[in-house]
Fold each of these.
Amino acid sequence: MGRYIIRRLLQAVLTLFLALFLLHYLTTLSIQINGNPAYAFFGAQITPTPAQLQTVSELYHTDHPCLTQPGNPCFGNFFDTMKRYAEGDFGKDLRFRPVTELVAERVPNTLRIFAVSTTVWALAGIGLGMVAAMRREKFMDYFIRLGTIVFGAVPIFLVVLGLKYVAGVWFGGWLRENLGEENALSIIFLPSFDDQHPWLTILVPGVALSVIGAAGIARLMRTSMLENLRADFVRTAKAKGLKPGRVMLAHTLRNSLIPVITLIGLSFGGALGGAVITEGLWNVRGVGQLVFNAVRQNDTPIVIAVVTMLVITFLLFSLLVDLLYAVLDPRIRYE
């Protein structure tokens, strides 16, 4: 097990290095083509003097000569940036506030929305997939498959806007009119995030973020369950006289979760992107909204720094998924 973990850690470090270099190169190429982003500090109405532009360029590390040479990968600049990242310095926004402080203020709300969406993934996705497999070719199977196709085809922003207006404005308005503003249900269905009730008002956007991922997980869980229900080891377990519940949980479910864990890892990457839209439209003061507003305000330092943090988070989550493979199936660690 130890050798397996070390091998996966080394692969994760190499992947992280390559991903950060690709992000650096795309950012560098963008600056080389579009010009120094330090101009955004002054706004469209102000033309900075050379001295002012040089000062701001030094502050945001955009003064390197290679940034004026299209196609130059700027290796020296990349290693300087990695050194700053390793020291915990992710730069400052256009108002001179450290990005790490901005992210730290908003991480709790993002963790709340991911806690809700992950719970829905596990309960709705895996649960519905199991029900569809056990009720194959029956009404519930057809109903679940149709629902997953519909929700899987709908863009995340439509899901968020639909829940915002249907659940938050119409249904929530009816609840507030009949139950009062301070009722728990009225608070849950508020059309916008409320800092005074962070957990209650995060439930609906959390569900919105998880809908598409849960649909894919349910379909894959159904397919995996049907495949394992016909496997030799399941028939052997039934022949030994094991109870149906034990066969389902200890044998079929555990082996069926391996491809599902893979999809959950991939869905996490989609959820990071979806969080930007969900938090931005629902006014959740999280990391996603930070990126959402930074893009609208052309605050490039925030976008670059936060995207880098999200890349690191996604790769760490992918490493966790790899380690879960070995927990679910001990044979994997010997491959």
Note: The longest helix spans residues 244-282.
Amino acid sequence: MSVRRALSLWGAAVLYPLIIVTYSVSLTTQLALWGYKLHRIFCANRPIVNHACGETLHTTVPPTGTVFTTVSVPLFTVLYSYVRILVVCKRSNSEVRRKAVQTCVPHLVTFVVYCCSVFVEMAISQFNRGQINPVVAAIISLEYLMVPSINNPLIYGLKLPQFVLQL
């Protein structure tokens, strides 16, 4: 990979979240709120928008598209790159294949679990407070905070079984 391509990918990875967060927060700060109690474990932008008085269409439409792009673009990019790595390593000797699988599988598992947690959290944020039970929203918020955090040490601390490495 060239330096120019690496820098452009790095720039996209930094600029996209910066633009989305800045845009969403700037729209949210203009809203008048009718309540200050969030049925969540932590504060997020979408539940604040759900507490707004009046028209929130301009703050609803852009985040709906970002739910898809925030999760799917990085997920498919990472999956594609790891598949390419594993295809190249498949042509190599068994030691290279074993090391590639031993490195890639934990990364893929933790990243997919994280992406699923982010997707669930972002999808549940799209509901209004009357559409979902507050206990369910709190449990899902806990899942978003705890499952990836617990998953990382477990996955990286375990040795992969031999039958997985024989791929």
Note: The two ends are 27 Å apart (CA to CA).
